[in-house]
């Protein structure tokens, strides 16, 4: 049991050390942003954050049909 716990802690320590290599060995090293809006390649392809896409979809369009008129037409 103790051997398994020690082995697990060793594997976790190695994984954390490998994840922090950039931060440890570079001056002012830090993790890069994982947000879509910070990625220039995705912005170039026109891929946006889901929040931005939702805002765009909710904008009122002049040619949109209101939901109430559709429901009332179906009920008649």
Chain-wise SSE layout:
Layout lengths: L1 H18 L1 H5 L14 H5 L5 H9 L8 H9 L1
Give an overview of the whole structure.
The protein has helices at 2-19, 21-25, 40-44, 50-58, 67-75. The protein is an all-alpha fold and 76 residues long. The longest helix has 18 residues, at 2-19.
Main attributes of the structure:
elongated, mainly alpha, 76 residues, 61% helix, 5 helices, 0% strand
Task: Work out the helicity level.
Answer: 55-70%
Described by the principal axes of the CA atoms, the overall outline is: elongated
Radius of gyration: 25 Å
**Relative strand content:** under 5%
Q: What are the segments in which pLDDT stays under 50 over at least 5 consecutive residues?
A: none
What is the terminal-to-terminal distance?
A: 73 Å
Mean pLDDT: 78
| Count of alpha and pi helical runs | 5
Output the structural class. mainly alpha
The sequence of SSEs as H and E is: HHHHH
How many beta-strand segments? 0
Largest beta-sheet details: none
Short description:
Helix content is 61%, strand content 0%.
């Amino acid at each position: 049991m103790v051997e398994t716990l020690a082995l697990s802690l060793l594997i976790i320590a190695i994984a954390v050390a490998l994840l922090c290599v950039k931060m440890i060995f570079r001056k002012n090293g830090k993790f890069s942003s994982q947000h879509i809006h910070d990625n220039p390649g995705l912005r170039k392809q026109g891929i946006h954050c889901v929040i931005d896409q939702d805002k765009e979809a909710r904008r009122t369009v002049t040619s949109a049909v209101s939901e109430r008129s559709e429901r009332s037409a179906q009920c008649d």
